[in-house]
Amino acid sequence: MFRATWRSLLARKLRLLLTAGSIVLGVGFVAGTYVLTDTMNAAFEELFARAASGADLVVRSRQAFEDIAAGPGTGATEERRPIPEALLEEIASVPGVEIAAGDVSGAASIVDPDSDEVLGGLGPPTIGTNWTALADAVLTVREGRPPDGPGEVAIDAGSARTGEIGIGDRVPILTGTGREVFEVVGILGFGPADNLGGATLAVFDTETAQRLLDKEGVYDTITVKAEEDVDPVALRAAIQARLPKGLETVSSTDVADENAQALREGLGFFRTALLVFAAVALFVGGFLILNTFSIIVAQRTRELALLRTLGATRAQVLGSVVVEAAIVGVLASAVGVGAGVGIAIGLRGLLGAFGIDLPTTAIQLEPRTVVVSIAVGLGVTILAAVLPARHAARVAPLQALRDTAAEASGSLARRALLGGAAALAGVGALAVGLFGSPSNPAVVVGVGAALTFAGVAVWSPFLARPVAGALGAPFERRSVPARLGRENARRNPRRTAATASALMIGLGLVSMVAILAASLKASLDEALRKTLKADLTLSTTSFTPFSPAVARRVAALPEVGAVGTFRQAGFKVDGDTSFLTGLDPSTVEAVTSLGVSAGSLADLRGDAIAVASDVATERGWSVGDRVPAAFPSVGERPLRIVAIYDEDRLVGDYVVPLETYEDLYVEQLDAFVLVRAAEGVATDEARRAVEAAVVGFPNVDVQDQAAFREKQAAFIDQLLGLVTALLMMAIVIALFGIVNTLGLSIYERTRELGLLRAVGMSRAQVRRMIRWEAVIIAVFGALLGLAVGIGFGWALRRALEPEGVTRLALPAAQLGAYLAAAALAGVLAAVWPARRASRLDVLASIAYE
Amino acid sequence: MTVAITRAAARAASVRKVYGRGDAAVEALRDVTVAFGEGEFTAIMGPSGSGKSTLLHCLAGLDRPTSGQVFIGDVDLTTLSDRALTDLRRDRVGFVFQAFNLIPTLSAEENITLPVDIAGRKVDRSWFDRIVDTVGLRDRLHHRPAELSGGQQQRVAAARALVSRPTIVFADEPTGNLDSRSGEELLGFLRSAVDEHGQTIVMVTHDARAASHADRVVFLADGDVVGEMREPTTERVLDHLKSLGA
Predict the structure, then answer these.
(1) Average of per-residue pLDDT values in chain A
(2) pLDDT number for residue A72
(3) How far apart are CA A92 and CA A73, in angstroms?
(4) Total H helices, total E strands in chain A
(5) Residue A352 falls within a domain, yes or no?
(6) Which of the residues A480, A486, A491 would you substitute to probe the B interface, choosing the one with the greatest number of B C-beta atoms within 10 Å?
(7) A794-798, Cβ contacts within 8 angstroms, sequence gap of 24 or more
(8) Are residues A692 and A711 in the same domain?
(9) Is the CB of A489 inside 8 Å of chain B's CB atoms?
């Protein structure tokens, strides 16, 4: 029995290749995700360990809590009070301390002197820090020397490479205090790496760093190296004893672990997101396998029946199909793991193309990756083959004598019922996941979506005949190939539907994402139109915060009326992380309209807070109530509500006055600045003046309202592009499915093709006929996908209404383009089958058995 | 009776066909020269392996001879490209095969007009009607092949072979899968196409009764023409076959 299975596999190498292809891609995606994240993890852990190896202890101020929700655009994971400079002497004098070094760090952007553009800054942070006696444990000087003097800087090798900056060049650097020009005296590497995960680094001498980062007289941390033979635990206690309240001494390995932990969490999120896309690809691959095996079982009906006549039991027939699937599954998964390494490299490139640079280290292929990948690939293959295998087992011995290769068909009523039930259950789960409050909504939504897709797929054969007919109808009168292609697409509705369903999933998700993005943009646009009163906005390309010096310069201009400064950072309310905005209460009314419904923003002074009406309603707050707020560096600090506002798009749910914000946070950078032109000054004139004033800050964009709205939309589009690119994998697999189905159908219709050729159909006409069939299948799948996608998009938009997605937008042109692309993809998928069909030997095809 | 031999609708001149190479080479046709007059109904007979199907395929432009020439009218098929051969089959040749003659997704009418439709030409409705009435398929035109009997299917195939007014119709065992009554009907139809419309037909058969409907029988054995007979009857054909030792 096993030999028969093996023979049947080898006899159809090509089919095997195409079926395996879908598993290879899906498993490759899974393996690639693991390889990529493992590789990144390993790179950073090595880096952190290296950093820890040069020192033993770190002194720093305590944080009230560790899990800081970074504000929008700020990548900060820590927020600690600085330590007075004087403490360094004290710690250095503790017996057993060999070296004690004070560290400062903050945001510093390197400006490419040639293009006057900021290097990096699109995701990874731009870091400025000081060179200390312990720095060379982390940093290696590749060229030149460490910085030593007010006008000197050393930069990372990555920035040096991208900015084509060398020793002796003079580069402007932007920090919280403004823009200054430095001479590059050193190029630094992180061991073998050119940069720290895409972050840019500018290193100054300690005094310069303190001045630039607005930390004069203080350090962020003090790093200690113990003398040899000194017990670090004892030293730690000795140092801790000398410290004032609020400071702590931790071992540098603990710091490394903290950093690694934070990174693992970040990467874990990234990994989960990628695995979701891999799951989609595998789901589609499962459809393809199910379809392929169904067709194969149908074509092999006589062979299977013959085996049954010769005495094979049902279990043996079932087993032979499952074993065939298992062989395909294992082989494909193994190849998939290999492909995963390639995909990991490709994904790194893809993310790079979207501005997310990742460090380059040796590729990590862990045993876990191999085990999980093969288990998943094998599981999906076998699961998808079970249904066709059961059909195979039901083949009666008598069918050996029949001539037809009819696909085993269950009752239509049962199919309708099953499909309807699955779709209904899916929609139900979606509703619960989106609008209810289950403990794990993401999983419920995922299962709901999968069930809905499966339900529609089971149902779709009922639609295949009429829809394929309607699609082909306008063309069938024009040519025989179109007519035949249409009829071929209709003749086996199950096969057409199953093939189209694979495409439906990919297209459904892509169009859902497109609808969501369009709705987001429309909602954002509407909200900004309502909220924004400013003539001009100042913000950076990726909404990273920038120097307050910009706002100061702008405020000094005579062409400018009101200037509103907005800073954002994370905090906790009642234990839940959120973020708040610090703003200037004296100008906020001039540059925005927040729609205050109770109280007044004029009362924002001291320990006051304004709250969005949604949150106030949810928590039952009104003006005068206290908000139990806590901050990482200053701890608990309850704030009194003085105003409630409706428009939370620009400022979020919580607003405090700027003076309070300055008191609550260490880092003082502006997230965005809103500017109103002075009375009688045209927007263009004000704009020219503002642009001239901030010319030294190339990271800051000066935009009028329309441009600002466009920039926000572009940001969403970029995300949409990334998600769509990741979903392409599922669509590519679905196209494999079309190729596979057509190939198998052509094999079945050899005689028919021979006849057509004999009576005078040209090769080109044969190719056209196959293309029509492929296009009709593809467009059918795309239409199903659009229908489901629009449904999903609509539901998701409804579910996100409380998050501010208040408008539903249907990007008709984009969805139309998807449909056209699907048709084009059909043409592409038909290339190989059409060529094969047109090259059939006429005589051999029409020969009798 | 046709006294004056008219021009040949198709002819083979010194046609050889060898399958395989070297020691495994099989000579299916050795130096066959034969002509088929316009408006004549010719049957090709011979034992299996005699090369009759190969000859038909070469004549019809479905296969290429190893050497020699094949003409449909004045056109030398051996000089034509695949594309030109396809067009020639479409426009000047009609086919009736033993089985699987029809496209299952098309109706009887669409199957009949298929060669004309493939060529993108307009169907000559009056000619179409005449053929349909002769084969008696008027009430089955909108049925799919699966809904037709074997005899009806073969008559649809015959109608298709005639619809484009081809120079010549080739029939390969057209009655092979039919019961004798359906077979007689089909042969009667082919006969009338010759008598009433001057159609040229070449039919391969191993059935002496079928051959008796022809004007002339060409006998093949071992890849050679070994004799011919005019105005055949079933008995005479059988006798001749016996004399060939088949």
Answers:
(1) 85
(2) 43
(3) 37
(4) 25, 26
(5) no
(6) A480
(7) A794/A515, A795/A430, A795/A431, A795/A434, A796/A434, A796/A512, A796/A515, A796/A516, A797/A515, A797/A516, A797/A519, A798/A434, A798/A435
(8) no
(9) no
Do A228 and A80 have their domain in common? yes
Beta bridge partners of B44: B204, B218
Give the pLDDT band (50/70/90) at residue B2: very low
Phi, psi of A355, deg, nearest 5: 85, 5
3-state secondary structure of A542: coil
Asked if A115 and A183 sit in the same domain, the reply is yes
pLDDT in tens, B192-222: 889 988 899 999 998 899 999 999 999 998 8
Q: Does this model's pTM top 0.90?
A: no
Q: How confident is the model at residue A622 (pLDDT cuts 50, 70, 90)?
A: very high
Substitution target in B54, B59, B62 with the highest count of A β-carbons within 10 Å is: B62
Minimum CA–CA partner of A404 in chain B: B146
Identity of the residue in A487, A763, A848 whose CB atom sits nearest the CB atom of B106: A487
What CA–CA distance (Å, rounded) separates A294 from A284? 15
Q: Is the ipTM of this complex over 0.90?
A: no
Number of neighbouring beta carbons within 10 Å of residue A529: 11
Structural domain harbouring A450: 414-458
Q: What's the burial of A390, exposed, middle or buried (CB within 10 Å: 0-12/13-18/19+)?
A: middle
pLDDT at A495: 86
Domains of chain B (ranges; CATH) run: 39-50+81-243 (3.40.50.300)
Using the predicted structure, report yes or no on whether residue A679 has a pLDDT greater than 50. yes
Identify the pLDDT of residue A9.
60
Asked if the structure places residue A636 within a domain, the reply is yes
CB contact under 8 A, A483 and B89: no
Q: What is the pLDDT of residue A552?
A: 92
Interface test with A, best of B86, B107, B164, B168 (most A CBs within 10 A): B86
Is the distance from CB of A461 to CB of A418 less than 8 angstroms? no
The residues, ordered by sequence, that sit 6+ positions from B29 with a Cβ below 8 Å of its Cβ are B15, B16, B17, B51, B54, B55, B58, B65, B223, B224
Q: Which residues contact B165 (CB under 8 A, 6 or more apart)?
A: B124, B127
Give the DSSP letter of residue A520: H
Phi, psi values for residue A761, rounded to 5°: -80, 130
| Residues A191 and A240 occupy one common structural domain | yes
What does the pLDDT read at residue A632? 85
**Chain A closest-CA separation from residue B235 CA (Å):** 29
**pLDDT, tens digit (0-9, with 9 covering 90-100), for B146-159:** 899 888 998 899 99
How far lies A689's CA from each of A9, A180, A541, A551, A563, in Å?
74, 21, 20, 13, 14
Q: Does A843 touch chain B (CB under 8 A)?
A: yes
Q: Which of the four pLDDT bands, split at 50, 70 and 90, describes residue A71?
A: very low
- Per-residue pLDDT averaged across B233-244, rounded? 86
pLDDT in tens, A563-600: 999 999 888 898 888 889 999 999 999 999 998 999 99
User: Are A747 and A686 in a shared domain?
Assistant: no
pLDDT tens per residue, range B72-85: 988 999 899 888 98
* Closest-CA residue of chain A to B110: A480
Say yes or no: A130 contacts chain B, CB-CB below 8 A: no
Q: How many CB atoms lie within 10 A of CB B231?
A: 11
Q: Which of A621, A670, A824, A631 is nearest to A735 (CA)?
A: A824
Q: Give me the number of domains chain A comprises.
A: 4
Query: A611 to each of A589, A600, A604, A656, A657, how far by Cα in Å?
Result: 16, 11, 11, 9, 12
User: Chain B contacts of A756, Cβ < 8 Å?
Assistant: 103, 114, 118
Note whether A484 contacts B: Cβ–Cβ < 8 A.
yes
Q: What is the pLDDT of residue A25?
A: 86
pLDDT tens per residue across span A819-837: 999 999 999 999 988 998 8
